[in-house]
## 1
Amino acid sequence: MTAEAAKVLLVDDETGIVDSLRILFRGEGYSVVTALGGAEALEVLAKEKPDLVVTDIRMPTVSGLEVLARSREIDPEVPVVLMTAQASLQSAVTAVNEGAYYYLQKPFANDDLLAICRRASEARELRAENRKLKTEIKRQVKRSKSRPIGKSKNFLEVLELAETVAPTGSTILLSGESGTGKEVIAKYVHEISSRSEGPFFSINCGALPENLLESELFGHVKGSFTGAVKDKEGLLVAAEGGTFFLDEIGEMSPALQVKLLRALQEREVIPVGATEPVSVDVRVIAASNRDLEEEIRRGSFRSDLYYRLNVIALHLPPLRDRREDIPLLTKYFLVRAAQASESAPTDLSDAAMQSLMIYDWPGNVRELENALERAAVVAGGSEILPEHLPQRVLEAPTPKLVSDRPLPNPAMEVIERAYIEWVLQAEGGNKSRAAEVLGIDPSTLYRKLHRYGLTD
């Protein structure tokens, strides 16, 4: 806080001293508020929230030390400069021990007082900058540790936008097929936001009947319905200061949509059976695998709720459109499975990886994770081979490089395998000649043939 922008509270029980200090500090560019005596200062402190306090110690009714104590209760970072005409070593020690920035004896030179206050303001500004820097460093560490895995362009675009909007507190609407990792993104946004110290709660709107979902979201009071034997706090209230993730928002009934809309607009909820609203301070992130705009046209989803939720829209691409992320995800899931079982990570053969790259993964990342967990168990600690993978993965047709409907954004491995196959066929299976056409050594070609499972 610079002296030009700082608000200073001047406290003394003598009008003449207050007036002279007001002129002095205004001349230096401070915003000045005054209090005639300690009792008035206690009222002004809570109302004005000054950046700096200059107060006399000896005042009737309420002393400067009491003003100091109250100031530190409101904001421990506000520097307080104490003035006294009857200085003693003991009073100075007491003042410093109780948190005074400086203890100044009257009479004093105006320049000395201004210099002390300038240093106090600069020290406060430096502490604020240090706190901000520590918070940002902590956020960056969290970001590096918890950042979702992926290097594909379309997925990185989603992550970068999520990282941009995370500190803003804006409501986010996540869309994408089931299993694409919408809750993973929601948790990531929470962890790198200013609300990361608060709770993260989530609920699947399609997993509960309407009455139970309403009670879970908004809470209820004792006796509001059969089985309500005591008051229950709703999750929106329980997530105070944090983030609340509403998964499958498209499954919510129209009646609950109205109540949720009101909660978002008014920042308050009314528990089932209650008459008084409860204020809430929570960031909402919603998700759906449905096309909500189509649901609006069908009349099953409210347009006003949609626009309230759709402040920031993030669409997660399906795994088939980000195949270059499959090797990274595979390594991550195998390492995590090994940690859970306290064993060494299971290796994956090149042929098995090729099968993973070809399959379309209709269940997306969740299906990949389950397939790898199964494969690691079936392999029993040995290298995962194609036969350890689910049959549906093995039966996936080999994609053609050129067709009426080519793969969207095919991975480099898919393109390379298809090109090698095409050259081999064109050269009648002659590997030496194929290596010449491809511009690689025969040994390199043999390694690639083995990797892609094209050996005889």
## 2
Amino acid sequence: MTRKTLLIIALLAATVFAQKKIKVQNLFSSYTLTSSRAHYKKELQEKAKELLTNKNLSTKEKISILDEISLMFFRPPGIYNFIRKSLINFQSNPPEFNNHLLEALKALYPNSSKLLIKKIARETNDISTFVYSACVLMQYPKKFELALVDSLIQTKFPTSNNLLLKLFFKEINSKQNSIKKELPQIFSFPFQKGKTIIFSLQRRNRSFQGLTIIRKPDGKFVRDSSGKIIAVPQLALSAANLPGYLKNGNTPQGIFSIVGFYITQKESIGPTPIILTRIPFGKSPEIFFHGQNKYKTWNIKDYELLIPQSLKNYPPIYEAFYAGKLGRRLLVMHGSTDDLSFYKGKKYFPLTPTRGCLSTIEIWNEHGYVIKSDQARLANAFFETCQPEGFLIVLNIDDQKKPVTLDELLPFIREAEKSLLQHK
């Protein structure tokens, strides 16, 4: 993003921040019309047919279709056989294609082809394909076959310093303890003076919805007119529920930079303003750290200055940094105009999974107008801070098998606000 683009965003932000309100009744998307829904389903069927029958498709085209049908949990006849046959010939495929095949298999048919996946894990020499196959084998975030995966890492890559492999090995062999006792310090930590701070608190199993709250530059959390803290349900889940340092994995834990907001032209996200966040390495350190970086090039020491003392030695807080180093990009906070019928029966319904972004609930009627928009609530709460720059903190607070609620966070929020008030 150029300085000119940033200036435009800043000027636009200033205008909307002054207005402080998205008029929800005016939100409209033709993508949600009944006719558009029918057209999309037909188009998706045609794409799947093309994948199954057109032998002249490029690898890039195959990956694009695989990713789309996986995101929608669409299982047309023949797609399982296509994935399986393609993986049987994995040695002849580019590693990137194998990885997307494995991702699709985990999303669509997570309990199938175990012997084939074991064969791939044992025989592949590509570290990324090994990690993807291991995730399918273990049914990540579960840890089935962990002993086998650990053994294969030791025998196949005994001296490797590969960053992806090191992150994977460390994560699957670590215990995910609750960090709730650290929340008061996290909620009261300054990060940078005068900045907006957004907290997205999640469970380790991202199939359970998380919750997002916003702290204003004065240290108080954004509240509604009745004095209740505005807390918005949010999903940090990828379709295949893969680790955050993989290309289309879950939203990584850690610290992201907030640089403003924008409205996308992408129909499946819709017209509600997106909170624009940047992952480390996605832009220059100057942009990420809002000009308060000590080093001109990316250096973990700048990132460490943003970490509360109690989390300095907590590996998950560094996941975003290393995910960015491995190439993850363009992870933002957005709504959704996707057809919710694809996700009926999922424990997170009516939230929708993404390819790594943080998504909120949006429900649209057949005439194209929004019925409910948590993204508008989140954006309006963001505008209430009157500061479009800051940081997003994404953390798994524990491994409970239920959605994150405001009631369980309130004691920690109150303690943090009390601490900040005492220090003033």
## 3
Amino acid sequence: MSASRPTVAVAMSGGVDSSVTAALLVQQGYRVVGLMLRLWTEPGHEAENRCCTLEATDLARHVARQLGIPFYLLDARQAFRETVVQYFLDDYAAGRTPNPCLLCNRRIRWGLLWEHAQRLGAAWLATGHYARLRRDAEGRVHLLRGVDERKDQSYFLSRLTQAQLQHTLLPIGGYRKAQIRTLAQEMGLPVARRPDSQDLCFLAGGDYRDFLRRHAPHTQRPGPILDTNGRPLGEHRGLAFYTIGQRRGLGVAVGQPLYVVDKDFARNALIVGPREAVFRTTLRATAAQWIVPPAEKAFRAAVQIRATAAAQPATIALQEDGGFQVTFDQPQKGIAPGQAAVVYVGDECLGSGIIAGA
């Protein structure tokens, strides 16, 4: 390692992506420090949470030793439970469908982890996300999709600020996943064939409904299932257990497939209807976070409404309250409040807002 290059803290998980990230930075001559977060795990389910098991920790420590870099395990259990898990529970209780990974990145990895990294003298924070960064002549950082479209993770970084991205490195965003596994094999890393971890680590691969029953039992409040004309069709188990666009598990049969269209909290009613009733042309997003602020109040872009959805062409109109409205060229299925509406122009992610309604 060269003392002439700055120190980079790598967020390690015991997986192939973060391990190759650390190895590439060592090859490039940085002084690398490996940091791993010990996150909250539901008591009794520790062995099922692959990102925080003893095996994952041992693998990360082994890789750090192999690379000749320091390794630190940081206890973030309380902060993660109070910030990320509670947000997940509160949003579902309020009828929204949250994506806690975005909050975890902003508050835990680029918050708590970065604070520890700075105490260790780090000038940069690097992660194994499949996304790219570009710096322009004015010194601003632009967030771009990863080269591997199937693994692109810019959606999950869309809530980061310009200040956070200024000290960020994403070394593997220009690679495809298959290339990363090949590099890991060539480097002799023990994680080359390790499977990818699940997104919501604290669910430990389980159903979120079971997690809600254990940690937010007040969400189990039965009520009527109504069609779009107000006709009763059955009884739901609690509005938190359903999401907009859901088809399976409704427990009603009327001779045609039914989908969740809306949630009426005033009547504690679940509104269902035919497939065409789930499609919407517009959405409202609040709490916009722009990595690079738009130059105009109305502009054309593509908007991604779920991590697994494709971005769709739309017109964006900025609002005075700090949010924005999206008008899609074509109606979209299952626009769920609580999810992020992430705005792209070409490969560049401009930022995102939280869907408030459709």
## 4
Amino acid sequence: MTAPNERRAPAVQLMVGALCATLTVALPVSAQSADTAAARPADSVSLQALQDSALARDPRAGNVALDRQRARLRLDDIAAERLPSVGATALGQYQSQVTTIDVALPGGIHVPTPPKDSYDAYVMAQEPLFDPSRGPRRAVAAAQRSADESAVHTSLFPLRQDVNEAFFDAALLQAQEAEIDAVIADLQTQLTVASSRVREGAALPGDSAGIMAELLRRRQDRSSLEHDRDASLAVLADLTGATLAPAARLALPALGDAVDRARANLDSLHARPEYAQFNASRTLLDAQRTATAAATRPRVSAFARAGYARPGLDFLSDRFQWYWLAGIQLGWAPFTWGSNERDQHALELERRTVDRGESAFRASMRRAATRATAQIDFLDQAVAGDDGIVSLREEAAREARLRYDEGVITAAEYIDRETDLLNARLARATHRVQLAQARANYLTMLGLEVR
């Protein structure tokens, strides 16, 4: 009587043979595609270049040029105040009473009475000779431009962190893909050996089926990683405007030395654009205080007037006359009922607000730096221990492979050791990318470049 296992053996062998044929066709093609992609020369994309591209691509970057144009217009307006101003005026009026001189002069001569209606059309030209507020107002315009530009840089700064996040998401998936590819190649080799043993009757079909199932699972993992990486690259491309091919290799920046220098000089680092914005705000407030004080100082200007009127300069005449006059004019408003002092005080209070805002920002940066350095130190230790763990797992996997080849252990036990090795390698790759990301985030947080 035929045993049940013997009756099922041909069916299992047929199933195994069909699966082997399918994987032999499908998997090598995928591996060949991957090998072809790896063999193609792919540009290595740097993080700093992507950050620069993101800043240049953002529409707000164009605001710097607009701010400069506005500042240039303000300065041109102030410069134009040096030029003479010319205006024309015409008026006619009737008054109910005029000056009369009721005195009879010798010889019966009477002083004429001016007419009650008068007319005057004239051109007036005025040229400033001395204006103490002009220089301070120019300083205000220049300080306003610097403040506006620094505000633009501050608003753009978060883009650097956005690029970091997308870049390292893709880099982590890239590293995990490489580890999965190595496992897939090894499983493919073992599948070929196992299939040959099954055909020769030297192994049970279940061994080959177990390896095939694990191979299919790893191919699914690889496909998931690939889709996630494509999504991260799409986000990165949208941020930077760069065309990133799926085969593009993201180069992890070597930032250990830069981080060490930054940690040694943390208290003196003021590279964040917020610091420049605080300084620009103080400069603007100082310039405004100076301009406010200069507004009450005397101003001197020259003027000239020419016209045609009745009466002209001879107010006793009743005829139309041409006339002209010229002179120097002094303008001074020393009494402002305290408004100037109140404006000065308000600007001083605003400066204190800026100082307190900077102090709060500096304190928040110290706290963030403390958290960031703690994470960097932890990942440094994790990466240092990963190599030892991977070495031990590799030794265990080599022993399991030899024992499997000798038929001492089953395919399931061999797959367990390979899974342990893969997990160790994935953990090492993850920690390495996370360490690079933590360093990059730390430098970016401080406003430093990640070259």
